[in-house]
Amino acid sequence: MPVERAWAALLRWEDQVRWLEDADSVRVLTSAREGVGVMIAVKTRVLNVPLFTERLEVVEWDPPRRLTMAHRSFVRGVGTWELRPHPAGTRFIWTEKLSLPVPLLGELALLVYRPFMRYLMREGLRGLRRYVVQT
Length: 135
Hints:
Layout: H1 3-10, E1 23-28, E2 39-46, E3 49-62, E4 66-72, E5 76-86, E6 89-99, H2 105-134
Antiparallel strand pairs: 1-2, 2-3, 3-4, 4-5, 5-6
């Protein structure tokens, strides 16, 4: 699948619940839906329980190659989605650098949660692949 098609699928913000394992709902908070400054709210499940709503802001926008979002709630840090052309279609690279504002305890919580988060990201990538093929 071409990079442009994969990029378009990623930007269907509300549809992200179809492939993001821990997203219960996604809604756009700004009138703009594209570009730096777009804000979204993601109702996030932890261990399959809708626990909190994360606010995310687009801080880097380089279509159709790269999108970086800053976590603006209790969870801090950035997540980057990068799309690269690949002989088999598109390679999607997803990185997250997160922190919790609770000294020591926050880092310990993330350390314990990290294996589950890796699982969620792997499943999210599989779900995204299925979603993009269907659309």
